[in-house]
Every structure is written in C-alpha cells, then in structure tokens.
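Worked problem 6 (solution included).
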Amino acid sequence: MSVLRPISHLGSRHARGGSGKFLFLFIGLILGGAGGYYWAYTHPPVPAATPFAQPGAMPGAQPYAIPSPAPVHPMPAATSTVPAVPDGFRRLDIKIRGSLSASLSKEIDGREADVLNAHLGRLMVWWLNPRRDVLRDDRLWTMYQPADLPEDFLLMGVCYQSRKLGKKFYAYSFKADGAVYTRFYDRSGREVEARLRQQPLGRYEQITERMNLAGRRHKGVDFKTAVGTPVFAPFRSRVLRRNWSTRNNGNCLELLYLDSGIHAFFLHLDKILDVAQPGTIVEPGTVVAHAGNTGRSTAAHLHYELHSPSGKLLDPFLVNEIEHQKLVGNDLLKFKEQRDRLDKWLAPEESADGSSLPPSGSKAARGQGG
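Solution. The predicted structure is:
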C-alpha cells in the first residue's frame, strides 16, 4: 500500500472513522502550527550567505542595508627589506637546482651565467668541493656588475649557504690601500684565498684554478697575473731543464727543490732569465723568469705544478705552508663599511653584527682542500 495516498481516497471506505478523524486532523494542524511558531520565535534562523555582504567584514557581518561593525581591513603586504640595486649592478638570490652552472643559466643569459659561474667557482673551492658538496636547495646570494668583456666583469660579493656543511660562507671584494689587485675577504677581513708562504710570485690577482677541483683534470695551480710579473724560486733549487714541449707549455722551466726533492714546473712563461741555466743552483727568492701567456694559454697566468721524487702529483696548498692575510688599521675600517653596505643585498635577513654567521676559514687552510 502506498504511504502517500491520493487525495481521492480521503473520505472513502478505507478512511475509517469518517468525520471523527477529520476533527482530530484539524486539532493537530492547529497545535502543530502553534508549536512551529514557538520554535521559530525561540530559534531565529542564521542568515544565508549573500553576495552583497560587505567585503572584508568580520564573520557574520550584515548586508549593506543593516548597520554593521566597522570592517576589518587586511594588513598591507610587508615591503621588501632589500634596497634597490644601483644602476649597472645586478643581484641574484637563488636556490640551487642541479649544478651551480645550470642554476645560474635558468636565471640569467647563458654567456653571463658562464662568466659568473667561473668567478663563483674560484671562490667556492676555498669553502667546499664543488663536485661533491653542492646540494639541491643550497642558497646563493650575489651582487655583481656585468660587462661585455669577461675581464671587466666585477663580482662585488657572495653569500653561499651550504646544507651539507651547515653554514654560510661570505666573500667581499675589496682593494686595500697601495694594493695592486682587488682581493676577496670574509666577514672578519681575512682573505678567502690561502697564500703559499714560499710562493713563486710576488704579486698576482687571483688563483683562477686549483688541482682537480673545477671538474677537469688540472695538474697544477694557475695564478692570474700580468705578463712580465717576476717569477721566483720559492726554495733553494737546481735548474733541471727549460723549454721542452713548448707547443703546449710555452716557455717553461723545471726546478728541483734541494731540501725536499720535489720537482717544480713553471709553464706559459713570457721569458726565462739567463740565471736559470740547467745545472745552476739558485737561492730562494731569485727571479728566474717572467710570467706570460705562451703555449696553450688563453690568458696571462703562471701554471705552477709540483711532483714528488717518485713522480706523484702534489697539491702545493697541502704540502707547503700556507697563510691567510688579514686587513688591519684603516683598511679594515673601510672594508667593514663596504661589507655592511653589501650585506643589504647579500643577506638582508641576517643580523648586522653577524652573530648567527659561521666562523671564517677555509677547508684548504685545515688541510682539507679536496
């Protein structure tokens, strides 16, 4: 039987009780209506959402036609703490995705990325091994001035956050009073690059490549310096030979360090002096040649290479004493002023006093240069 009966069935023989049931139905309707009115009076309905509700109002705010509390406006977006970059300069703030080179190429023009990658690589080898220690989500901040010629490219500062090593590394470009070249220093004014205490050059701009750390099989250390820069014998030595395989080596010289038995090779020389004749003994500090750009060389530099008495290739920064020069006096004061200005772009969220920054130093200085 159907639950909802047709209206035509009402009053038929199926609806027993006839008029009595109609009376009870009428009374029920009256009572039901009264109960519904009482319920509605004591439980007012919640207003349905309306597209006319005042934008930004508190939850439950009424439409415009009804007075409502003052709307709560959202807070303005926080402004960036990074000041505008000076004309002619560029700033990068990136997370590493893949290699450093690939990450840079996603942000800037390919040629510019290549030049910047080379400059960054020369610094990072003093902090970590670029082939093993660069991880996804490492972060890089850098400020630089691009140029049409790679030699005119100016890297002002770098901050690199290493997840593997759990610290940040900083480098700031600064030229001390009376210095020939600009150098890179950490936050304390300590040179990022290590120096050999007994080195083959009195002055050079930068070490542009170290052994096996740049991803190719490089057998020595390249010192970027001008053609004609004096080259010294770092230790008491015997001259063994000069100018062999000149197509690759250019003008070249081999010395035997008498105290250690180490063989030293000086390649791409501009000129070898007469004092450096095979069989001659030369004292430490003797000028034996001038740096150049000969043989398979694309820029003026000195290639310095060491081999043990058995012929094993040696890293000069692991077998010789090293040091990191520090700025002092007025140079240090000027450096700190420049450092603080650059920090606004390199890592603006860091505190100015650097209390959350890592101690300075390089893995190479601890005999861990890779």
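Discussion: The chain has two domains: 87-193+324-351, 195-322.
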